[in-house]
Amino acid sequence: MISEQSLDQLQRENQQLRARLEETEDTIRALRAGEVDAVLVGSGCERVFTLETADKPYRLLVDEMPVSAATLTERGEIIHCNRRFASLLQLSQEEVAGRSITSFVAHDCRRLIERMLATGRTRPAECELSLRRADGAPITAYLSIAPRHEGALGECLVVTDLTERRRYEELRRTQEALTVAQARLELAQEAGAIGIFEWNVRTGEVWWSRTAERLYGMPASGFDGSFDAWRRTLHPDDRERTEAEYVRAVEEHRELGTEFRIIRPDGQTRWINAKGTVIVDSAGEPLRLLGVNTDITDQKAAHAERERLFAMERAARAEAERAVQARDKVLAFVAHDLRNPLIGIEMSASTMSSGGTEELRAQCLHMIQRCTGEMRRLIGDLLDVARIEYGRFSILATPLDTRGMLMEVAEAFQPRLAAKGLRLVQEVPASVPPVYVDRGRVMQLLANLLDNALKFTPAGGVIRLGVSSTENFVEIAVTDSGPGLAAADLPYIFERFWKAEPASRAGAGLGLAICKGIVEAHGGEIRAENAPSGGATIRFTLPVARG
């Protein structure tokens, strides 16, 4: 392989050879002119050259040149060449002698060699061109020609074979390109957090790039290069499946594509995406699995969050659709409940305007008052639900005797209980503490619950008011002896516009939603359950009054 420095050295040697040639030519000229009779040459042994052998030193000098060399006539015919020149052309010295140098030059370079020969008659000439060997193979060569001097046999041609130098330069350019490509690949790996791996399936050895080691949380050169070491990094729940997918890709010569979890040395769990291809030998047997790893933990988290949001959105949409359907059904009930008292008011007003007895006018007035009371309660319920929904439901709390509050509401319901043949049993301990509540709202709460109990308890049944207490809360339970609640209805009974009996037109389904709003406004909790002995129980808590 010839480097740039070697080529410069050859050029310097050529100049030295030209100087020696000139000295030899001067010696030959002196012999031929009769200025000297003989020349004594010493080179380890003494040799004498006379006029008869005057050309021999010149030939010996050409023969001993460390590069390919030959002497030419003015027309370019080769007079003599050394063994290196003949070997370069893959011919013997005898086969080369007498032939024109142009016969060994590539056709497209012949004009170049002709100009070089013409120039070389008066001054040194150099060029680079392509020679042809005996077998036709091209040789990139560097040629230099020394001009002819008096007494010399001919011009001296020195040839330097540049084939190896060209190969060296090509190899160097290829190496530079590979270095650049490697740098680009490493930069791409760093930018994309891509780790490259190679599994030699015959030896079991595994190679990782530096980026792959970082993906797995290892220091540089921290991976020991074995398949088992990679296997140990896998999450136990993914280990068997992932290993089987790698082995199956190799055995079936198919592309690898999988996702799995790893556990880093610091205990952190990460998601890895692996893609690879199987390299086979000429017989189709697998040699290695070459692939890439990328960390997809963030993508997995984003996907899970997106799915969670989609699920929430689907649930919210379903809830909204159900609420709209419930609202539409209840609006029909509300319209009916408003229309009935309006009709009563209209009929009573019409009767009063047409005259009639004083007794009839009193009955009509009572009907108007009852109807307006029903409308006022329904409108009040709708407003309460709206306030609860928009967070504008407020209370004005004061200490209130729990026992006295329950007795008051029980007394108010006695006429209705008696009319239906029901008994109200109060199980209130004498030591129950007072509660800190909004009296009007809690009375509304108890009235709604007792009204529901009356509605679903059959004639002759029993309604119970039970009370218990803790340090911070008083729990009140209203239990009826009706059919109880369907298990499927329990999660929904406190929602607005919900009714346990959709076919019934009695009420708008707002009572229990208002009860829930009142209890939560006091900081308590409310729940529904079926009583062990039958019927339904509504339990709620209210805060104990302090001081």
Would you mind describing this structure in some detail?
- Helix 12 (402-420) runs parallel beside helix 13 and helix 13 (439-456) packs antiparallel against helix 14 (511-521).
- The protein is an alpha+beta fold and 547 residues long.
- The protein has a 5-stranded antiparallel sheet with strand order 4-3-7-6-5. The chain has a 5-stranded antiparallel sheet with strand order 9-8-12-11-10, with helices on both faces. A 5-stranded mixed sheet has the order 14-16-17-19-18.
- The protein has 4 domains: 4-161, PAS domain (Beta-Lactamase, 2-Layer Sandwich), CATH 3.30.450.20; 193-295, 2-Layer Sandwich (Beta-Lactamase); 301-389, Helix Hairpins, CATH 1.10.287; 398-543, Histidine kinase-like ATPase, C-terminal domain (Heat Shock Protein 90).
- It is rod-shaped, with a radius of gyration of 56 Å.
- Strand 8 and strand 9 (206-208) form a beta hairpin.
- It has 14 helices and 19 strands.
- The longest helix has 57 residues, at 297-353.
Q: Helix coverage percent of residues?
A: 40-55%
Which secondary-structure class do the elements indicate?
alpha+beta
Count of DSSP strands: 19
CATH architecture descriptor text of the largest domain: 2-Layer Sandwich
CATH superfamily of the largest domain: PAS domain
Low-confidence stretches at least 5 residues in length (pLDDT < 50)?
34-39, 42-54, 502-507
CATH topology value of the largest domain: Beta-Lactamase
Which of globular, elongated, flat, extended, rod-shaped describes the shape? rod-shaped
CATH class of the largest domain: Alpha Beta
Average per-residue pLDDT, rounded, comes to 81
Strand content: 15-25%
What is the gyration radius calculated from CA atoms? 56 Å
**Total helix count?**
14
Main β-sheet, in a few words? 5 strands, antiparallel
What is the topology, as strand order, of the major beta sheet? 4-3-7-6-5
